[in-house]
Please model this.
Amino acid sequence: MGKLKKETDRSTGQEQAAAVTVQFPIGVKLVSIISLLLILFLGLITVLVSVMVSRDVQLTAEDTNYTINKRTALSAGNTLETVYSNVLFLLNNLTALNRVDLLEAMESQSVDYFYRYNQNIGAVFVRGAVGRENTGRSELFINKQFMVANRLMGARVEAYINTQVEAVSLAREGEFLLFNVTPFLESAMMEMIFPWKNGDIDSAVGVFFSLDSLKETFSDTVNPSFLINGLGDVLAGPDAEMVAIGANMSNQPFVKNILESGEQNIQTTYQDEEGQDLFVAYQRLSLGNAVAITIIPAKTVFEGITATTRRTIYLSAGILILSIVFILIFARSLSKPLTELTQAAKMIEEGYYHLDLKTEKKDEIGILAGSFMSMSRGLISFEKFTNKTLTRLARSGKLVTGGADRKATIFFSDIRGFTAISEKLKPDEIVEFLNDYMDRMVYCVHVTGGVVDKFIGDAVMAHWGAVESTGSPEQDALNCVKSALMMRASLRAFNRGRGEDKKPVIKIGCGINSGDLVAGQIGSDERMEYTVIGDAVSFADRTETFNKPFGTEILITESTWQLCGDYLITSELPSVTERGKKVRMFAVVNMRDPHETDDLLRCLDGMPKTNRKITRQCVGTDGPQTLAEVRTLLGTPTPDLSKVNTDEEEKKYNISTPLQT
Model:
């Protein structure tokens, strides 16, 4: 009967496969590809020729260059106008003070007030006097804070002023001059000299101010802008080195034309000394015969067009070659997906069911790929009902059939008051809540190398070293404890925002024991499972129940403590009786070993739905250091152990005389 059923299923499968219609046969695809290549070649040539219109690009570049130059000139002019008007205000204010000489005026509140709100100005000098008496003296107003901040000496400024005889004479005759004084003062500064009428005396006023206010204006390196004076000296620009060395651009042909031209602003094309075409926009400023120049090389403007032309040539050559060898490529298009299917079959054989095969094709290979994807989805769903580690070992033949003696660490956890919680939830709400909770707990087990044995309602049973071991019972035991500490941190993050009937705060108890046990496949011919049995397993389950009277969350037995206690901060609790023997019990507080702590924190940081701040409150140097701190952290009341030690409780929990903790 079973053989007949298998034959019937096979026949049905063959009939379904025969009924599949191939929508796009390979012959049709061959014709389509040839036609597509020809259309693609002609279409690309047509499109590329039509879009390569260099004139439009040039007009756009010139317009952009002109706009940037206009904005730069306006900003620079505003800066110069501000300095000029503020200094005039100071001088007029000092004159109005009716002082006898400039020394007293300099010390007045007007000068202090001026420098307080003009911190970019370092010094002001006057060839003449600012007072009721026109003595013809020269005075220097120093901004001491500016000098200190820029590491300047007043003597250096005075020495430079003494070299400005010709400039001062020109200013007294009515000229407005600008100079780059950066090379002389070794600080990014500009000097402005302008005429000033002081009574009957024609005076010259000089102002030294910082270039910081112009840095942003002249920072563009794509369309670089420069501010030059009437001599071609660079006053400001994107290259700080040019300003620092006092570069002069008057030797550039286009700069000569600009200085000699009477135009106020213009956009034109020039050539530099190397013969390179430049798009140049310039505008004269109203002060100091300064000119703002914005430049962009034609090579940069047409770089995109050049690259497009080059790509067109390469593309045309590629299409031509592709047309010659398309049959070979198409033949390979058959072998490649078949190779991918072979690899997919190998992946399934190795237990990797998450395939990524392209199934949009409607030919025979596409249909086969779709079948593989359907099979992989089914295997993924089936895998959730089995243990991945056991499945992998069984598939590779490494899982020992029958029973085997092991030295392992067993873990049990249980949700406190789950019955009361479930009574307030609907069935689908219970399932959703448990799935979310178990998802976190299982992650903690797997990331530390453990194996989830089974779920018993809301309880989790897992073990370390039974199926696979690190080779060290001590490390297996420590990994188990690290998993429990991860659960503590994850559960605190899980409880954020909870506290209602539908979302109660969850507390758990964890019991951990280490010892000898038997691991093997137990069941019947129709249903088997790989599990562990033995006294060590039973005592781990009982250890979990001691959390309630002890007011703890993570309990380990003496056997586990002996294996990994040196790595942990623990608190010893009253001993319990197991088969007539007293067994010491320890509450886990935190990790002690820095290396293992760092490893645990890395695992927590990679955990989904975690919270770094909460993690550090539970584990590490910022975490609890005593059992009392753990109870405070988790909101667990401290039990009165003296009251626990009654005959009734001792019989119930097998608790011996408690220690003083």
About this structure: The first helix runs from residue 2 to 18. The radius of gyration is 43 Å.
